[in-house]
Amino acid sequence: MQLLKRFSPILTVIGIQLVVLIGLYLLIQGLWQGFSFSLSLWAKVSIQAAGAVLVSYLFRLPLWWIAIQFIIPFAVVLAIIFDLPTWVYPLAFFALLLFYWNSADERVPLYLSNKTTWKALADLLEEDRLSGDNKPIHFIDLGSGFSGTLVALARQFPRHTFTGAETAPLPYLVSIIRCQISGLDNVHVQRKSLWDVDLSRYQWAYAFLSPEPMPRLFKKVISEMPKGSKFISNSFVVPNNPPTDTRILEDRRQTELHIWDIN
Ligand SMILES: C[S@@+](CC[C@H](N)C(=O)[O-])C[C@H]1O[C@@H](n2cnc3c(N)ncnc32)[C@H](O)[C@@H]1O
Questions:
Q1: Cα(81) to centroid of ligand 1, in Å?
Q2: Using an 8 Å Cβ cutoff, are 45 and 73 in contact?
Q3: Does the pLDDT of residue 6 top 70, yes or no?
Q4: I need a labelling partner for 134 at 20 to 30 A (CA). Which of 3, 28, 89, 114 fits?
């Protein structure tokens, strides 16, 4: 059941491609029988890709799945043209799975906070240090990816402790190596689901996830984080729970950092 849940968006993606393929087949037959007109190979591939994008959009699949839907028909045809060996497909799928472990069931893909965001988080920590009692802080990145955010902050704030929770196997492995290479002893990553983290130990929690887990995550934050702590969400808000403050960053995507003071 758990496995089915993890793969359900992937099954939806495959199902949509198959349904569009049936539609394309009927269209090809209709054009040929009605008008003796035959589509070129790339016209067929483009129609398949556009159809898959349209149906995925109507099914409200997340944007990254819609992009994948567009790529699939072209990738399959190119693979056939260049006669790639069959083991390439499961291998590519497996490699993607190790990176995008949480895209399917958690609906959280892997994309990374940029350096402008690292700097904004550092500025917030610095503001807090100047206005507060200057005690060491425990900071957690919930879904820490390759740990770039954590290592950058750990280097700048040696008195604070930075922890990551990450379940995707390859990002976790990269994180372990990165933390080791950094030589810092105030940054650690755990192979742990963010749902299993005890947030009562942390004064700051940062998350860059997707709209999907936000309501459940916010409930966890409110019930576990200590009074006076801060929860920061990169880009994603919590329905019906406006943040205490929002910082709009001066990067290309105008990143929004939503900050909640936990009282
Ligand atoms: C958008 S990336 C953000 C990475 C990093 N926090 C950053 O800002 O650069 C989200 C990460 O959360 C991880 N993730 C998603 N659901 C998770 C869960 N339940 N437990 C732990 N990690 C999770 C994904 O694997 C991915 O690496």
A1: 36
A2: yes
A3: no
A4: 114
pTM of the predicted protein model: 0.72
Residue 113 CA to residue 133 CA, distance in Å, equals 28
**How far is the CA of 77 from the CAs of 29, 51, 98, 207, in angstroms?**
20, 16, 25, 38
Residues 149 and 116: their CA atoms lie apart, in Å, by 10
Atom 11, ligand 1: residue with shortest CA distance: 143
156, with CB counted inside 10 A (0-12, 13-18, 19+), is middle
Record: fold of 115-261 = Rossmann fold (3.40.50)
Per-residue pLDDT band at 154 (split at 50, 70, 90): very high
- Residue from 106, 150, 196 whose mutation best tests the ligand 1 pocket (most atoms within 8 A of CB): 106
Residue with CA closest to ligand 1 atom 2 = 110
Residue whose pair of structure tokens reads 């950058």 in the numeric block: 152
Q: Is the CB of 145 under 6 A from ligand 1?
A: yes
For residue 188, count CB atoms less than 10 angstroms from its CB and return exposed for 0-12, middle for 13-18, buried for 19 or more. Answer: middle
The pLDDT of residue 135 is 87
Q: Where are the domains of the chain?
A: 2-84, 115-261
Position in ligand 1 atom list of the atom nearest CA 171: 27
Which pLDDT does position 253 carry in this prediction? Answer: 78
Cα 209 to averaged position of ligand 1 atoms, centre (Å)? 6
Q: How far is CA 144 from the centre of its chain?
A: 10
H helices within the chain, ranges in order?
2-35, 41-58, 63-81, 88-99, 115-131, 148-156, 169-182, 214-224
Protein residue with least CA distance to atom 9, ligand 1 = 112
Ligand 1 pocket residue status of 233, Cβ below 6 Å: no
Task: Give residue 169 CA to ligand 1 midpoint distance, Å.
Answer: 11
Q: Is 190's C-beta closer than 6 angstroms to any atom of ligand 1?
A: no
